[in-house]
Protein: LD-carboxypeptidase
Amino acid sequence: MSILFPPALRPGQRVALVSPARKISAAELAPAIATLTAWGLEVVLGESIAGSHHQFAGDDDLRRRDFQRQLDDPTIRAILCARGGYGAGRIVDGLDFSRFTEQPKWVAGFSDITVLNCHLLRLGYASIHGVMPVLFHQEGGEMALESLRRVLFGEATQPLAVLPQRLNRPGTATGPLVGGNLSLLHTITGTASQARFDGHILFLEDLDEYLYHIDRMMLHLHRSGQLAGLAGLVVGHFSQMRDNSVPFGSTAEEIIDSYARRYHFPVGYGFPVGHEAANISLVVGAEAELMVDASGARLRVA
Structure:
């Protein structure tokens, strides 16, 4: 399947901020709104911004209705998911992408937004795995924010290069990028949002999970055959991992390695992708090249 890429943004265009998962306030987004305005964009706040239903940014119908409105509005040229949390998977089956396909636009976010990234890829459209507005101004996140701006405006991006890591597996791979949050990739297996992995370079990240959960999810990807056809694997941040009183005995990276070593694709660890300030934007669906050797690992995205 050929992947379609939305057009780059231009100054003066309108972008929407929505929250398809956890609730957030307009006040929390004020710094991000100022930044987007400084980029020359007109910011539209969706109904889900300041919506509230327990932990969600409004009930499922409100969040779905808000996202649908932005998909359908031809004057909205990008949809930026304000934050993650939990909830995108509860609304995705109710979304109608027919008007979106007539005039595609960028959808950007990460973590829980992995559901939408993969759903769009399955439909044949690229999207952005990158920093969300609630995190635009976290300390140390300047490169992450700049990388998002460059992708949105169609500017050239630099290859990602990381130092050698103990568990790296050397080799070169080419293929489209797919991936995101491991917990969400596990959750959408067998659903209408599951994206193909075969022939792709998979990237993984996660936050606040027990180590045995990481093993259980990697085991599932292995047993379900999703790792067998990978071209390559990129491992990002596995942040704030937890353990039981009786230790699991392996780090998250060692758990991933225990499954990756059963195959022959190259693997690069330590990439700046995930729940840390250095969360460089990746275009899901873009052709990429992964090179891993004694000098480290490099990911070049077309």
Q: What stands out?
A: The CA atoms of residues 165 and 269 lie 6 Å apart. The domain at 14-152 is CATH 3.40.50.10740 (Rossmann fold).
